[in-house]
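dumping these here so i dont lose them again. two proteins, back to back, each one seq then structure tokens. dont judge the mess
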Amino acid sequence: MATKKHIELQEYTVEELDNELNETVNQYQKIKFDHAIRGLDNPLVLREVRRDIARIKMEIRRRELAGMSAEQLSARTKIRHRRSVARKSK
């Protein structure tokens, strides 16, 4: 089930995103530890929290890319192209 988390994250500032990421990672580590020790009622919570972490990181990266100049983006495209060619040759 998809959440509206990504819409909420767009309204956050960069500092709020960093704080949210730190809190979510700490929460994930705590839940993971609890699961290892005594188990969870619903282990799918781990998946939800991992996905929330990924959503937050994606939003941070999206903002980084939006702040890049055209020159930086073109250099990034060249790097991505080299990586894809290297993957295909393996």
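---- next one ----
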Amino acid sequence: MNNSPKRIAILGAAGVGKTTLLNKIQDLLDIQIIPEQARVICRELGYKNIYEIKDPKKFRFLVLKKQIEKEEKLNNFISDRSTIDCWVHWVRWDFESSKTFESEKYFNLSYNQALKYSHIIYIPRMFKPENDNFRWNNNDYQNQIDRLFKGILLEWDLMKRVHIIQSKDLKERIKEAMIFLNND
């Protein structure tokens, strides 16, 4: 690994293989993992799944703040989800209130942190996700999230830092990701 910091975010809808790919890449790079903060916080609060969250807006702010806190502590990391994910899910769930001051604060926190990523690996939907009993994974919802990711990556002018995974095969995904990460 060269001397420039690797601040890697892996994005995509639920069940596309982010965590699986992250674990394989982490083994090859020997870089610290930032686990998906929504799951970490749910465990800490005693929730078994997202359906039990009592105050979704407060929860989404907590996830974003924890994500930023974890990222700021590390010079190099690979993150299972990112502040981009935080914004995508905010837009999906709070579209009606997207013009509030609260929303602008959330946007600015998400966007400014996203600009610090050196590498973004985006995994598009290629197959129906397995039900993990934690997230929504119906087809329409997954398609909406996927479209939002594509739009945000373009809108935030992040495509120079993005590799879009092309393969369904895990070994090929690892190969793709490693070529991208080592091609600085």
